[in-house]
Amino acid sequence: MPQKHVVAKAADITPGHKLVAKVGNRDIAVFNVDGEFYGLANTCPHEGGPLCEGFITGIALSAGPNDYRIERKGEFIRCPWHGWEFDIRTGQSWCDPKSVRARQFNVRVAHGDELVQGPYVAETLKVEKDGDYLVIEL
Amino acid sequence: MKLTKTGAIDCDMHVNVPSVRTLMPYMSDYWQDQIATRYIDRSSFAHMSYPARSPLSGRKDWRPADGPLKGIPGGGLADVQANLLDRFNLGMAVCNVIHGSNSLFNEDMGAEFCKAINIWMARAFLDKDPRLRASIAVHAQNPQLAVEEIERCAGDKRFVAVLLPLMGDSPLGRRIYWPIYEAAQRHGLAIAVHAGSTYRWPLSGVGFGSYQIEDYVHMGAQFENLIVSFLAEGVFAKYPDLKLVCMESGFTFIPTLMWRANKTWRGVRAEVPWIDEPPAEIIRRHVRFTLQPVDAPRDERILKRILEQIDCDDLLLFSSDYPHWQFDGDDILPDGLPEHLIRQIAIENPLAAFPRLAAAATISDALAGSAT
Amino acid sequence: MNAPTTTLSADGKSGEKLMLADCDIHPIQKPGELNPYLSVRWREHMATFGPHVRQGLAERIAWPRMMASGQRVDCYPPEGGPPGSSYEMLRDQHLDPNGIEHGMLIALSKGGMEERNQDFAAALMHATNQWQKDHWCDRDPRLHAGIVVNSEDPVTAVKEIELRAPDKAFKQIITSARTNEPLGRRRFWPVFAAAQETGLPIGLHPQAHPGGAPSTGLGWPSYYMQEHFTFTTASEPVAISLVMEGVFEQFPNLKIAMIEAGFSWAPILAWRMDRIWERMRKEVPHVKRPPSEYLKEHFWFATQPMEEPENPQDLLDIFDWVGWDRLMYSSDYPHWDYDDPRFVLRVKLDDGKKRKLFRDNAVALYGLE
Ligand code: FES
Questions:
Q1: Who among C67, C68, C339 is closest to A47 (CB)?
Q2: Atom number in ligand 1 closest to CA A82
Q3: Most buried of B37, B143, B241, C229 (most Cβ within 10 A)?
Q4: C332 to chain A: closest CA residue
Q5: Is the pLDDT of residue C7 over 80?
Q6: Long-range contacts of C293-297 (CB under 8 A, 24+ apart)
Q7: What is the CATH number of the domain that holds A20?
Q8: CATH code for the part of the protein at B8-15+90-99+134-370
């Protein structure tokens, strides 16, 4: 039976920001991209770097040498170790989308009303009736 | 092992210019005057990368024992025919002239030498044997002059590539050289980068070593640097039809080159965003390697593993590297080369690497006979 | 390849916990930390003139790194100072969680290895060596120092080696692979003599400044992608030089550890050298045996940055060809291309091979028991 884990107040992660949520013994990087929330395993699928400590960026693209542009600003996380780029929305690696992907976790926004009826797990914060919370079911 | 197939295409063989005087008739009045009065014709233009009497530069039995070409590695047309073309029943062979003039600092003089070499090549070899093809010698120090020479030669379809020395003034991927690649692509010429240095720089990243053997060993790693230069600078993104043929490079480094290029790319992709696929794929599409030398032990299992790691049958091009001493007797192929690959290396890959060969091949009886 | 196919037992899963040796850890000084080890003259020199290396930028490398100045982003100490300057951070991020039993320190920064002013270089190396001992080795017996020397100045280098060698904190001699001339040339031989005399291996590690020659034989690279590649292609020439100059005929007990130099080139280079030596050996009569034999006998290779073949199994061929007793795990902590021991291998190794690679080879080379 999956459990509802309340990991943060929605307001704690403003657009363009991220934090690491502890769910059981798992670290999950939670991102706010333009008001939508996404969760990725904080362990990089390459060599285990802590993804959430990397840079939130766009993707550098080019039509050829000496042409540079950044697209999809804020939609990628660059691993703090070897710099691999992952699409925050899908967890896919830009360079190897087919076989390298950071594990995804669904992050849902739930209102305090709904949550206080339980059952839920909130390890580090107190859930109150009003306010929006981020919930990961696991 | 021996080559049993007839009609193979030798993608890297050499002829040596016997003397500066050989070239003078093809030079302008001014340069003839300069060469004569400065005594430029009185000593050889043997290349430091291939010292004339060094064992590597010429197999003993491929140096004429007497006559006007005595001792010159590879001899002249008759020697090439007897030792190479007839002996191995070749369909075609691409001649590359490695001439010391590519190290001259005076780029006008260098370009004049290239022009003379190309005319001499056409008259003394290409006109005399329909199996022969050649690379266009250019003085890379001045890309504009190089392009002029390419344009001058391009009408002659027997020239199938542009020849550049591996180590010159700057890594060859750099944008300053792109006019050469533009011209090559436009004319369907491959870019043939051949082992050797103009000694503008030490041959390694740590300065000059002491021995000739070191200079030659260095070439392998420097070919890796060359390919990384082409990748990083985006040459193939800019010129998608271009083929880079690494000549006398060795090929056993290809797997580790591809792995490292792929790995590095994942971390530095944003620096060179025009690389939009794994570099190994770009290498497999655009870069070719001539067969000799085979830098592997005489152990079929190892060669087989390397070929499996390369994982692409398109990359290797048959070559003798005549008259350089890479093999003994008639063992022109490394032991253990699988049969299907021999056919591909000997004929199909060369035709694909040098588009101009294919055009010629459709009218070449010798090849039509052998390709069946 | 999402899940690592091999994890070391840092998590205790496979029963007995394999403790590791890490052959490449980079400690660096906190600001001012070296000052107590420098005379007034050199403190003032450092403050007034600063480093003098063979490149156009005085305070950084001319190919800007891709990640956070070439460091793991998560290694910047919260209290300030550069990555690698916090012992606690090294302990908590790497030594403890990864079960590092032996960590070989490679003190690149301010060790004077690539400094042109030879007296300044001498002061720096002397200071850095004492600082390694005081700040790292004395604090944690897992950490082993390397005697950093500027091999461009062999006389001073030898003095420093002789001074430090009796101290068991020092397990090797560290010098730059990016010298002004290839390291096999005779002017460097006093350093080899001292190494052989003291029984210490020589660890070669570039400090990342050019040695004076362009980092490729083709000329200067444009991009960091190329420069990064030269960590392998400019390391090969060092091996070529040592072999072809006959260094190992002269110093038959000399041991060389190539660190952050790659390793998969070694067998290929060995094959190439052997083939050419067959034809050219008269030029180098002092190279008495096939060059591959010297490479096999005298060289060890730290594994970082690990190869990641398209087919992970291909790595085993390379390990076979290099030799299972010659490869030593290294992390390169805290640099961006760090290799994590839990995930660095994507192939399964039997326990014996794993032990050699992750521990025993280094223990044997450096005498770490
Ligand atoms: S650990 Fe994330 S890119 Fe390597």
A1: C339
A2: 3
A3: C229
A4: A81
A5: no
A6: C294/C242, C294/C243, C294/C248, C295/C239, C295/C243, C295/C266, C295/C269, C295/C270, C296/C270, C296/C323, C296/C326, C297/C248
A7: 2.102.10.10
A8: 3.20.20.140
